[in-house]
């Protein structure tokens, strides 16, 4: 039996790779299954709403300064 990866043979390395691959697949499947769905139809309707384009840029100025002398 191999207790360290330094002295492990090819079969032991292969077993480690297969176990880690299976664990990562199980985690991905679990995360995908636990993903919440859309709460209601309004979210879907907002996603398909028409795109509004921005108008011309505007500059807002004010000359209501109070001068203290």
Give a summary of the structure in a few sentences.
The chain has 69 residues and is mainly α.
Weakly predicted, low-confidence segments: none
Number of helices: 2
Oligomer status: single chain
Helix fraction by DSSP (H/I, runs of at least 4): 40-55%
Q: What's the overall geometry?
A: elongated
- Give the SSE string: HH
Provide the residue-averaged pLDDT. Answer: 78
- Proportion of strand residues: under 5%
What is the fold's blueprint, element by element?
Blueprint: H1 10-34, H2 41-47
Give structural notes.
By secondary structure, this protein is an all-alpha fold. Helices cover 46% and strands 0% of the residues. The protein is built from two helices and no strands. The protein has helices at 10-34, 41-47. The protein is elongated, with a radius of gyration of 31 Å. The mean pLDDT is 78.
Tag the structure with descriptive keywords.
2 helices; mainly alpha; 69 residues; single chain
């Amino acid at each position: 039996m191999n207790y360290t990866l330094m002295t492990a043979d090819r079969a032991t390395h292969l077993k480690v790779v297969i176990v880690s691959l299976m664990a990562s697949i199980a985690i991905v499947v679990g995360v995908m299954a636990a993903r919440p769905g859309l709460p209601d139809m309004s979210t879907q309707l907002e996603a398909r709403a028409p795109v509004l384009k921005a108008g011309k840029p505007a500059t807002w100025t004010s000359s209501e300064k109070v001068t203290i002398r």
